[in-house]
Specification:
Layout lengths: L8 H13 L7 H10 L6 H13 L3 E5 L6 E5 L10 E5 L5 E4 L2 H14 L9 E4 L2 H4 L1
Parallel strand pairs: 3-5
Antiparallel strand pairs: 1-2, 3-4
């Protein structure tokens, strides 16, 4: 049974540090569990999911649903809302996540709102493809 008063502060710090150090990537709960196991600090799957949920509720991380219902991944965003001001490109080969500011995509968002009355949330929009390095 987990002690919620002093519940494994070290593990929480390790999870948060992992997410911060990999803020350019989307990590899954399995990635977090594997990392903790490698550090000889294993934590149960349900506990990791609960902590990730808490971090998401606090706005410290963002949750992205994987295509075709294959789970979710998470990205550190800190306590700012910067992700509302740019787009996300995810390389399907190397897994790297790029934050991109693009006036052209801003124009598409404006068009969609003007013509269709729909506001695109760029903080949750991820374009998947192959990055420049992997295309070489």
């Amino acid at each position: 049974m987990e002690n919620t008063g002093q519940y494994k502060t070290k593990q929480r710090e390790m999870i948060l540090e992992l997410l911060k150090n990999n803020s350019d990537k989307h990590l899954t709960a399995e990635d977090v569990i594997g990392y903790l196991k490698e550090q000889e600090t294993p934590v149960g799957k349900a506990t990791v999911y609960r902590y990730l949920e808490r971090l998401e509720e606090q706005g410290i991380i963002r949750k992205y649903l994987m295509p075709e219902g294959k789970g979710a991944c998470y990205q550190y965003s800190g306590d700012t809302r910067e992700c509302h001001r740019h787009y996300h490109f995810k390389c399907e080969k190397c897994g790297k996540l790029f934050h991109v500011q693009c006036e052209y995509l801003d124009g598409i968002s404006k068009h969609v709102y003007g013509e269709h009355g729909f506001t695109i949330d760029s903080s949750k929009t991820v374009y998947y493809g192959i990055c420049r390095n992997c295309n070489s």
